[in-house]
Amino acid sequence: MTNAASMREEAETLAVRALGFVAGDPELLPRFLAITGIEARSIRHAAAE
Q1: What is the dihedral of CA 37, 39, 40, 42, to 10 degrees?
Q2: What is the pTM of this model?
Q3: Mind listing the pLDDT tens digit for each residue in 14-40?
């Protein structure tokens, strides 16, 4: 795996872990959605890709 590919994979893994952390907190998730303006369905769509 090239360095760029490795860095991308690490970044994607970190993003998934961070999203899992936010989604696992019933107080944090609504706040995250409100502050970022992103909708839950947009997150689901992006995660499916």
Answers
A1: -120
A2: 0.73
A3: 999 999 999 999 999 999 999 999 999
